[in-house]
Amino acid sequence: MTTTSQHSGIPTGKEAREIDAVVVGAGLAGLHMLHKLRELGLSVQVYEAGGGLGGTWYWNRYPGARVDVKSMYYNYSFDPELEQEWEWTEKLPPQPELLRYINHVADRFDLRKDVQLRTRVTSAVYDDAAARWRITTDRGDAVSARFAIMATGCLSAPKMVEIPGIETFRGRSFHTGNWPEQDVDFTGRRVAVIGTGSSGVQVIPLVAEAAAALTVFQRTANYVLPAGNHAIDPEFQRDIKSRYREVRKANRESSFGIARPVATTGALEVSEDERNAFYRSVWEDKDSELVSMLTGYTDTLTDEVANETAAQFIRDRIAEIVSDPAVARLLQPSGLFGVKRPVLGTNYYETYNRDDVRLVDAAATPLTAVTASGLETTHESFEFDDIIYATGYDAMTGALAAIDIRGRGGASLREKWADGPVTYLGLAVAGFPNLFTITGPGSPSVLSNMAVSIEQHVDWITDAIEVMRSAGVTTMEAESDAEQEWTRHVGEAGDMTLYPKVDSWYVGSNVPGKPRVMYAYIGGVGAYREKCDQVAADGYDGFTLTQ
Ligand code: N01
């Protein structure tokens, strides 16, 4: 920690309402942050672009949307009564249940009164002299706040395809990450889905059931593991609730925010039979986790040969499920397993056995245009009533870059991150005092159970603000050296794995021109938490605190 002294207290623009903190976003992160800051006695304004609370779970209303982490582990842990009173109904709760939960939390802790909906923050500009952030919105709001906390989400800036004519389509267009609030009926319609990531895999089977005909445009096949979703076992729910403290602790100390037995053997150290028996047990076990297939052996994510054993097991299952061998071959991924985001599906491969579902190879015959009546590829014209873009996000940095964030001396965050995000712990940025990013780039975030990582950041930020207040500190700012070193470490940790070898949004390759770096920290949730706690225990080592 470095301490300096600085004059402060010059009021910012006349019309700006002065408050203690602005939180951008009212999803799981923003609402929790609001609650904690209020407990500290701070005045807080939350701005939320959506028409309701919930962030991801407000926007992703497409048929089939559900979380792929077990309900008992994907929820808030901050209030023992809350975690006891809420009853989950499914292993992997669907979007409406998650939204009900989030709204229940908002009501229970009276959070709504400090949230302004349908309001997009457009700029956050730091006033050096006043040591305050001036925040403006698309609805003309202006507030001046000591703290600016970005709870903007990692997957909240939807990305469309880079093909011409999108606006010319006369039918209905949807992006999975910006789904309408009203129910959408696909009965009797000819529907296209572009994209076979987590969103496409969830939406495809349900749209297929309703539509007259569904055409799926797949550019890269994904490894889709059976979700094994089912009604929650009441005994399981009771058991977890009876030992929630121990369960939470284990999740927090784990690699991915979901406690798993620690692997001690490499996949190549055991016989093929033993390996396949393990893979089959994960495939068939209705209680397996998203990460079960990744965490059984020590080397799945670090050794290509080991990785291939899991990959081939899944390819074999695809061939068993899909009756047309040509379709099965197209659905069989050729690349590494698990270093693109693992995907869980329900009836996904089975859906391709329907007569009214067609799979188009958008790698061999790329999409070239959206037309008034449908889509064109290099080989064919298609007519559709509806197009669903399941084309993903400008992940990790997209939502932050959408805001004009300017720190000391008017420096732009977008420009600072032109070659990739540079952060200290994924929490703070040099030159941007008192600005915190919840699950920001350079933290485990998307490589973990988000509920665990969000709470860790919210708690860390709350503690930091509390310490600042009691020590009479006005600003906390990441130091440039610490930030450089951390960012280098994030990259090196990624380089020790197979992640950088594959094109994916984890490395930014889905957005043309986006720097190819590792956007999340793969060092593990538990180790990362220890590092953050150590930084705090050492008096916020790597931060400059100014009186
Ligand atoms: O987005 P994606 P997503 N022509 O980027 C394709 C979380 N999530 O919304 O791979 C044809 O994964 C693109 O093809 P390719 C989860 O973390 C979780 O599905 O680039 N295709 C790809 O298939 C997830 O990872 C859940 O070759 C084109 C797809 O669009 C993250 O959100 C549910 C194309 C995009 O896949 C993002 O998932 C949903 C083109 N021109 C989301 N352009 C849960 O289950 C793009 N594509 C909790």
UniProtKB/TrEMBL annotation:
<dbReference type="InterPro" id="IPR020946">
    <property type="entry name" value="Flavin_mOase-like"/>
</dbReference>
<dbReference type="GO" id="GO:0050661">
    <property type="term" value="F:NADP binding"/>
</dbReference>
<protein>
    <submittedName>
        <fullName>NAD(P)/FAD-dependent oxidoreductase</fullName>
    </submittedName>
</protein>
<dbReference type="GO" id="GO:0004499">
    <property type="term" value="F:N,N-dimethylaniline monooxygenase activity"/>
</dbReference>
<keyword id="KW-0503">Monooxygenase</keyword>
<dbReference type="GO" id="GO:0050660">
    <property type="term" value="F:flavin adenine dinucleotide binding"/>
</dbReference>
<keyword id="KW-0274">FAD</keyword>
<comment type="similarity">
    <text>Belongs to the FAD-binding monooxygenase family.</text>
</comment>
<dbReference type="InterPro" id="IPR036188">
    <property type="entry name" value="FAD/NAD-bd_sf"/>
</dbReference>
<keyword id="KW-0285">Flavoprotein</keyword>
<keyword id="KW-0560">Oxidoreductase</keyword>
<dbReference type="InterPro" id="IPR050775">
    <property type="entry name" value="FAD-binding_Monooxygenases"/>
</dbReference>
<dbReference type="Pfam" id="PF00743">
    <property type="entry name" value="FMO-like"/>
</dbReference>
<keyword id="KW-0521">NADP</keyword>
